[in-house]
Amino acid sequence: MPGKPLVGVHISIEKSLDLAFERAQELGCTTMQIFTRSPRIWKFKPIAEEQVASFRERRSAAGFEYVVDHMPYLPNLASSDQGTMKASRASLSQEVERCDALGIDYLVAHLGSHLGDGVMRGVRNVSDAVDKALGKSGAGVTVLLENMAGQKNSVGSRFEELRLILDRVRSERVGVCFDTAHAFAAGFDLSGGEAVAQSMSLFEDSVGLDRLKVVHLNDSKAVLGSNLDRHEDVGKGKIGLKGMKAFVGFDGISQRPLIMEVPYDDIVAMRKSIKLVKSFV
Fold first, then answer.
1. Rounded CA gap, 178 and 268, in Å?
2. Would 1 be classed as within a structural domain?
3. Which of 42, 58, 69, 253 is 20 to 30 A from residue 208's alpha carbon, by CA?
4. d(C-alpha 180, C-alpha 147), whole Å
C-alpha cells in the first residue's frame, strides 16, 4: 500500500516535457497525467535523448510512484475504416514507444466508435490494435482501456465490453482506467455509498477490480444515464461530494492513482481539488 495518497491532475507540458514534474509538485500532486505531445494533431516531433534523460531524472527527484500518459484525441481504435485504422494503430504504437522511452507507467486510451459496424467489430479492432502496439514493446508501459460515456456507437461504455477486449489481448500489460464521469453518464450510479457499491459490484463481476489501475476522478455536469461526456470539478456535479467521497472510499480505490482532468489551468482551483481529494483518502 502506498505511504501517501496518489492524487494528481492533468499537467501541461508547455515548453518541455520535464517541466511537468515541477508544475505538479507546486500544485501538491503526488502523481500526474500528461500528454507527451499535442493531442489534437497527428504529426509530432521525436523526443530528444537529452529530454528523455531529464524527464527520468526529474521523475526520480520528484519521487512519483506512477506517471500516466493520455493518448491523443484523434485516433479511433474501434474503427474499421482502413485509413483511420492504419493511422490510429500507428499512433498507439508510437505512443507506447514514447512511454517506454520516458519510463511512463500507464498509457490511457479512448477506445473510440465502431461507426455503425457493431460492438463486436469494434471490440476486435481495439484488441488487435493494443496487441499490435504491445507486441512491439519490449517492456514497460501498461495500456489502459478507458470506459466511455455511452455515446452513439462507442465501444467500452459497458463493463462487459471492456472484459471482452481484455480477454482478447494476449499481453498482460493491459488494464482499465475508470472514469467516474463516463461511468455515471453511461448509467452506473455513483451518487452515494449504496450506489457506488452496486455499480462497482457490477464492475468486479464483469472486469475485476484487479484490472483497474488508474482512476479519472471527474464529477459529471450531465445527469445519470445521459451518455454525455461533460466533466465537472469534484463535488460540484451530479455525482456530488457524497458520491465522490464514497467512490474514493470503496475497496482499494484510494490506493490507485487518482487523476482529476478538471479544472485545467486554474491553479487555485486545482490546488483546492487536490486538497479535497486527499482529505477523502
1. 26
2. no
3. 69
4. 9
Helix (H) or strand (E) holding 50: helix 49-62
In-domain check, residue 2: no
Reported as a single tens digit per residue, the pLDDT across 140-188 is 999 999 999 999 999 999 999 999 999 999 999 999 999 999 999 999 9
Dist. CA 194–CA 213, nearest whole Å: 23
Give the total number of structural domains in the chain.
Answer: 1
Residue 74 vs residues 41, 118, 204, 244: alpha-carbon distances, Å: 7, 20, 30, 30
The CA distance from 126 to 115, in Å, is 13
The pLDDT tens digits of the residues spanning 34-78 come to 999 999 999 999 999 999 999 999 999 999 999 999 999 999 999
User: Cβ distance 53 to 93 under 8 Å?
Assistant: no
Residue 117 to residue 134: CA distance in whole angstroms: 25
The answer for 140, left when phi > 0, alpha when psi is -120 to 50, beta otherwise, is: left
Would 68 be classed as within a structural domain?
A: yes
Following CA atoms 117, 122, 128, 130 in sequence, which dihedral angle do they give, to the nearest 10 degrees? 150
Neighbours of 63 (CB within 10 A): 10
Set of cell numbers at residue 158: 459497458
Domain with residue 95: its CATH number is 3.20.20.150
pLDDT in tens, 178-213: 999 999 999 999 999 999 999 999 999 999 999 999
Which residue range is the domain that position 120 belongs to? 7-280
Handedness of CA 226, 227, 233, 235 (dihedral sign): positive
Evaluate whether 116 touches 152 at the Cβ level (below 8 Å): no
Alpha carbon distance 280, 201 (integer Å)? 21
